[in-house]
Amino acid sequence: MIFLASLFSFGVLLAFAAAQIAVLRLRVRAPDLARPYRVPLDIHVRGVALPLPTIVGLIATLAVFVIAMVTHPGARYAGPSWLAAGLVVFYLVRRSRGEGLLQQVASPDEQELSEPVLGRILVPMKIGLIGEEMLATAIKLAQERGSAVEALHVIRVPLDAPIESVLERAEERAAESLEEARALGADNGVEVIGETVRARSIGEAIVDEARKREVDLIVLGSAPRWRRQSRFFSPTVEYVLRRAPCEVLVVAFPQGVLEEDA
């Protein structure tokens, strides 16, 4: 137990010291870096603003570290052994990735990511405000990227009815929604290709059509009502997110804005 406690305290002290050294180093190397939080009470050393609390904390941490090494045999032997083992693991991981031991690696938020190519955008049609917002978002993206929009209206056929059943009302609504989509696209200089398909599951139909058409992006909508239940998205949106062969953009709405299903 004493051995584990000594090992833990050794690691904590080193972590604190490393964090404080990193703060000071960043103040020297990147003084103009945007910082969400800046340690107060700066002192100026050779034109560099160094935070006094960090300096005091570093000195105190190193003092406690030295005292622990001198007075606790467990920390004296277990700590350096644990540090050596960590360095070996660090070296092996770097080597397995083909990176140098001291090579600087950029974090994901520092890497410049290329803009995705959006040649074909699929937007499943939906009656109501959510559907209108989904379509408007897809057309706006297509307008910016010079893409084409493929509007898909899925007629969900009940399991107890033949797939080719006559569903006049559903077919009329599908034709109306696709015509509105083409008109909105024409008003914004975007080509909208509309098609109606029949399926037992809307999510499966969306994924199948996306794969068949080799689209680059699917635009979906999510109503706020699902966030009051046990799931964040509707079953259809979750299915598409898990199975889609391309990128998926979910247009979400705040609580209280819309009260219809996604």
- Beta-strand portion reads 15-25%
Class by alpha and beta content: alpha/beta
Q: What is Rg?
A: 29 Å
Quick one: CATH class of the largest domain?
Alpha Beta
Mean pLDDT comes to 79
Helix content: 40-55%
CATH homologous superfamily descriptor of the largest domain:
HUPs
What are the key terms here?
alpha/beta, 262 residues, 16% strand, 7 strands, 2 domains, Rossmann fold, five-stranded parallel β-sheet, 7 helices
Please provide a written account of the structure:
By secondary structure, the chain is α/β, with parallel strands linked by helices. It has 7 helices and 7 strands, in the order αββααβαβαβαβαβ. It has helices at residues 2-29, 52-71, 73-96, 129-145, 168-187, 202-213, 235-243, and strands at residues 42-45, 48-51, 120-124, 148-156, 192-199, 217-222, 247-252. The strands form 2 sheets. It has a 5-stranded parallel β-sheet, sandwiched between helices. The longest helix has 28 residues, at 2-29.
Topology of this structure?
Layout: H1 2-29, E1 42-45, E2 48-51, H2 52-71, H3 73-96, E3 120-124, H4 129-145, E4 148-156, H5 168-187, E5 192-199, H6 202-213, E6 217-222, H7 235-243, E7 247-252
Parallel strand pairs: 3-4, 3-6, 4-5, 6-7
Antiparallel strand pairs: 1-2
Helix pairs in contact: 1-2, 1-3, 2-3, 6-7
What can be said about this structure in brief?
This protein is 50% helix and 16% strand. It has seven helices and seven strands.
